[in-house]
Write a structure and sequence with these properties.
alpha+beta, binds adenosine-5'-diphosphate, binds magnesium ion, 13 helices, 363 residues, 13% strand, three-stranded antiparallel beta sheet, binds 2-acetamido-2-deoxy-1-O-phosphono-alpha-D-glucopyranose, Phosphorylase Kinase, domain 1, Aminoglycoside 3'-phosphotransferase, Chain: A, domain 2
Length: 363
C-alpha cells in the first residue's frame, strides 16, 4: 500500500527506506529516505491523515497551504530560510496537496526538516525556553492573518464547556462498562466544572479576544535545531484556527512543564515544575512581543489549568468510549494519560499563587 502511495508524489531519487516515525497521537507518520546521488540522502515525511479526527481533509489542506504560504512570506521578509522555518508541502504528481487512495484515505507529504529534533520531554531546559520563544513568535507572525478565511477544522476544538457535555454523555452511555472503575476521576472533573466554563464565559462577555492560534503546542510539535538549539520550525499545523492565546501557552505547560511523561503510571513522579513554568513564560512573552492584552497575560495560569483539565477530560472520555480517538499502544493508556493530567491540575492548584507571581515577574 505504502509503495503505491509513494508512487503518486513528486519525490526525487530512489526510495531506499520507509518506516513509521514520531510519537504523534493522531496521524500515521512515515519517514521516507531516497538515494539521490548526493552524499546526504533525501528525506520526506509522509502522513496518512486521521479521517476519524479530520472528516474534512480537503479543507484542512487548504488551511495548511494558505498558512504555510503566509508564513513563507513573513520568514522571507525577516531574512529567514523558509525551507527550514515552516512546513513545506510536497505535492502529488498531479499537483495536488494530497492524494486520496482507493480506500478513501488522504495522504500528504512534507519536506523533512533536517538537523533538528522534536522532543517528547524536556531534555535541556534551554530547548523548552526556545520552544516558547518560537510558539510566541508563531502567534505574533499570524496576528494579522485573515482569520475568517480559515476553515474551523474541528468544531469547538478547545470549547471546554462543550467538551464537558461530551464527557458527561460518555459517562451516561458508558459503552465499555468502565465508568464504575473511574468514579474518582469522574468526580474530580465534576467538582471542577467551573474550570470548563471559565473561558467560554469570558468570551461570551467579550472580555478576551479570539486570535489565530496553533491549538496543539506540545513540545513535540516544534523542531529544535540541533546546532543552535533554537526552535526552528513549528509543525503539526492541522489545528491552526481562531482560538485563545492562553490555551497555546497552557498546552505547552501541560506537556512540557510536567516532570514526567504524559502516560507515566507512577503518579508520584508527576508535578508541574515552576522552574520550567517560569522559563516558558519568559520565552512566550518575548516571542509574542507586545501583542497581548493585560487580561490575557493575567489569565496565563488559567490557560495552563484549563488545557490540562480539558486534556485529562478528553483522555477519560476516549477511555470511556473505547479508545477511538487517541492512538494507544497498551491497554488503559488513555486512563494513565488522564491520571497524569488530573495530578497536574491538582499540583497547579497548590502552586496557583506562585504561577501568578511568576507571570507578573515575566510580563
Ligand atoms: P500528529 O498529528 O500525529 O502528532 P505530527 O504532524 O505532529 O503528527 O507528526 C508526528 C511527528 O513526526 C512529529 O512529532 C515530528 O517528530 C515528526 N515530523 C512531522 N513533520 C515533520 C517534518 N516536516 N520534518 C521532520 N519531522 C517531522
Ligand atoms: C493530540 O496530534 P498530537 O499528538 O500532536 C491532540 C491534542 C492533544 C494531544 C495530547 C488534533 O496531539 O489536541 O492535546 O494529542 N491533537 C488533536 O497529547 O486532537
Ligand atoms: Mg503532533
Amino acid at each position: 500500500m505504502l509503495n503505491e502511495v509513494i508512487e503518486r508524489f513528486r519525490f526525487q531519487g530512489r526510495l531506499v527506506d520507509q518506516r513509521p516515525y514520531g510519537s504523534g497521537h493522531i496521524n500515521d507518520t512515515y519517514l521516507l529516505t531516497f538515494e539521490n546521488g548526493n552524499e546526504e540522502p533525501g528525506r520526506a515525511i509522509l502522513q496518512r491523515m486521521n479521517k476519524n479526527v479530520f472528516p474534512k481533509p480537503a479543507a484542512l489542506m487548504e488551511n495548511i497551504m494558505n498558512v504555510t504560504a503566509y508564513l513563507r512570506g513573513k520568514i522571507l521578509e525577516n531574512g529567514g530560510d523558509p525551507e527550514r522555518e515552516t512546513l513545506n508541502v510536497i505535492p502529488t504528481k498531479d499537483g495536488e496537496a494530497c492524494y486520496v487512495d482507493a480506500k478513501g484515505d488522504y495522504w500528504r507529504s512534507y519536506v523533512f526538516i533536517t538537523d533538528a529534533t522534536s522532543y517528547d520531554q524536556v531534555e535541556d531546559p534551554e530547548h523548552f525556553y526556545q520552544s516558547a520563544v518560537a510558539f510566541g513568535r508563531f502567534q505574533r507572525l499570524l496576528s494579522d492573518y485573515p482569520a475568517d478565511t480559515l476553515h474551523e477544522i474541528i468544531e469547538g476544538f478547545h470549547d471546554t464547556r462543550a467538551r464537558y457535555s461530551l464527557f458527561e454523555k460518555a459517562v451516561r452511555e458508558d459503552q465499555m462498562g468502565r465508568a464504575a472503575s473511574v468514579m474518582r476521576e469522574i468526580e474530580f472533573l465534576r467538582e471542577r466544572k467551573s474550570v470548563a466554563d471559565c473561558f467560554g464565559e469570558l468570551l461570551d462577555k467579550g472580555e478576551i479576544p479570539l486570535r489565530v492560534t496553533h491549538n496543539d503546542t506540545k513540545l513535540n510539535n516544534i523542531m529544535i535545531d540541533n546546532q543552535t538549539g533554537k526552535g526552528i520550525c513549528v509543525i503539526d499545523l492541522d489545528t491552526v484556527m481562531p482560538g485563545l492565546v492562553m490555551n497555546d501557552f497552557g498546552d505547552s505547560i501541560r506537556f512540557g512543564a510536567s516532570t514526567a511523561a504524559e502516560d507515566e503510571q507512577d503518579l508520584s513522579r508527576v508535578s508541574c515544575s515552576m522552574e520550567l513554568f517560569e522559563l516558558y513564560a519568559r520565552g512566550f512573552m518575548k516571542g509574542c512581543g507586545r501583542s497581548l492584552t493585560e487580561r490575557e497575560i493575567q489569565l496565563m495560569p488559567m490557560g495552563a489549568k484549563v488545557m490540562t483539565y480539558e486534556c485529562g477530560m478528553r483522555f477519560l472520555t476516549d477511555y470511556l468510549e473505547g479508545d477511538t480517538y487517541f492512538k494507544i499502544h497498551r491497554e488503559h493508556q488513555n486512563l494513565d494519560r488522564c491520571r497524569t493530567q488530573l495530578k497536574l491540575v491538582e499540583d497547579m492548584e497548590k502552586k496557583w499563587y506562585t504561577m501568578q507571581e511568576i507571570i507578573n515577574k515575566c510580563k
